[in-house]
Specification:
The chain is globular, with a radius of gyration of 23 Å. Helix 5 packs antiparallel against helix 13 and helix 7 runs parallel beside helix 8. The protein has a seven-stranded mixed sheet, with helices on both faces. Strands 13-14-17-16 form a four-stranded antiparallel sheet. By secondary structure, the protein is α/β, with parallel strands linked by helices. It has 17 helices and 17 strands.
């Protein structure tokens, strides 16, 4: 009798976890309607023949028709190289290209569009700072403070700089109790030897929103520079570079409704003006002689060669699209839907969600990285895709040191954006339950 009752309770719990909550239960999360209103703008997920549940926006977002149309219009109507040309096509291309720089500047509240440097992506933006500032300003014994949760793009460039300069890299740990950054330990690492603090604004794996205000204040107190990897914040919440007080932030266009191949570095103008050129070539010069050259003022100093013109213009259009929705509204929706995702995934038997709860100061991003004691993350992700057309990411999410710190070799990650809906979360959780049951059956056979 007892065994049967326990089995019945387990079955009931499984049904409860996989059954979507009632409308009343859902209401506690607030307004969850934005995703349904925006879906028609995104052809890949709204086309009738598409059945994919796309939960991989932390890797790259889907693109709205408004952005695609701008790209098509550039190539069809005014394709031309920018700057230096005096003909009408060149003038229009240059105007649109530089207007996009202004749109990005407004989007992050820069003091001037000249503080926006176009790059291929955030990785290139971090490398730009590492080489154009780091090699000239870091020397043996100087310390660079990072965290164990950094994306490889914010670890490897500093390792390369350390090999060449002798600077010392220090890494702030996690707080095991909360699953987020150990703020006290990080603040304790910042001292008179610290020349740079470089950290994620929001973790792409843990989802925690880092206490950048206190870290920036501590860095300022010892005269250190601060770089923020804002790839997971700029697309999802209002980011005001003047209020933050960092020296540089980096972001990628493809995570914020823009195309691949374009990102940006924002830097304080007084800092950018002290930095050496990153690459040599056309565009970044003032005058060239056979023996030497003089260089353009920022931002052109860091933009050698023909740029990604169409992609930059399209990133400007993506800023327009997000601004029209309103970044406060975007953030409110993602907080609500992210909490719903967290609650539903963490209720699944045999699943552990990485990172803090949504109730911690700063909250958490609308993503859930998780492991299961039933199957490997890649196997789970493969079955979710093959049986339910649910697209989640699996692996180390370019955070191998973080996974090592957590004692795991991989995790699966479901990440949301403005076009996702609570119904998609329900579909995912139901498919996850079925997938785990499949592996339980296989393991017990």
């Amino acid at each position: 009798g007892g065994g049967a009752a326990a089995a019945a309770r387990a079955a009931a719990a499984a049904v409860a976890a996989s059954s979507p909550p009632s409308a009343e239960a859902l209401a506690k999360y607030g307004d969850l309607s934005l995703g349904a209103k925006l879906r028609a703008d995104f052809p890949l997920i709204s086309a009738p023949q598409q059945e994919v549940v796309y939960l991989d926006s932390a890797a790259t977002s889907q693109k709205p028709r408004q952005v695609m149309d701008v790209m098509e219009r550039y190539y069809a109507e005014y394709n031309s190289n920018v700057h230096r040309g005096v003909h009408a096509l060149a003038a229009r291309a240059t105007d649109e290209y530089e207007a996009a720089r202004g749109k990005v500047a407004t989007f992050v509240n820069a003091t001037s569009e000249r503080e926006i440097v176009w790059t291929r992506n955030a990785s290139e933006a971090i490398n730009l700072v590492a080489y154009a500032w780091g090699l000239d300003n870091l020397e043996e014994g100087d310390e660079v403070v990072l965290t164990v949760m950094e994306h490889h793009s914010n670890l490897v460039p500093w390792q390369l700089v350390a090999e060449r300069t002798g600077c010392v890299l220090r890494h702030a740990p996690l707080d095991a109790a909360t699953g987020m950054l150990d703020e006290a330990a990080m603040l304790g690492m910042i001292n008179e030897r610290t020349k740079l603090v470089s950290m994620a604004h929001v973790s792409n794996t843990l989802g925690c929103v880092n206490p950048v205000e206190s870290v920036i204040a501590a860095a300022r107190g010892v005269g250190a520079k601060v770089l923020l990897d804002a790839c997971q914040s700029v697309p999802h919440m209002p980011v005001d570079v003047q209020a933050l007080g960092a020296d540089w932030i980096v972001a990628s266009g493809h995570k914020m409704c823009g195309p691949t191949g374009i990102g940006f570095l924002w830097g304080r103008m007084d800092v950018l003006e002290t930095m050496s050129p990153f690459m040599g070539g056309g565009e970044m010069i003032q005058d060239v002689y056979l023996s030497h050259s003089t260089y353009a003022e920022p931002p052109l100093r860091f933009e050698a060669g023909t740029p990604a013109i169409c992609e930059a213009i399209a990133l400007g259009a993506a800023c327009d699209y997000l601004s029209e929705i309103g970044m406060e509204k975007v953030h409110e929706y993602e907080v609500a839907l992210g909490r719903y995702l967290y609650d539903r995934v963490s209720a699944v038997e045999g699943v552990t969600v990485l990172g803090p709860t949504p109730d911690v100061p700063g909250g958490r991003a609308a993503l859930a990285s998780f492991t299961s004691d039933v199957a490997h993350a890649t196997d789970i992700s493969t079955i979710l895709d093959q049986t339910a057309s649910v697209a989640v990411r699996s692996g180390h999410h370019c955070t191998q040191p973080l996974h090592r710190e957590l004692g795991i070799n991989a995790s699966a990650r479901a990440s949301l954006y403005i076009y996702n809906t609570p119904e998609e979360v329900d579909t995912f959780v139901g498919a996850l339950e079925e997938t785990l049951q499949f592996f339980r059956d296989v393991n017990s056979a």
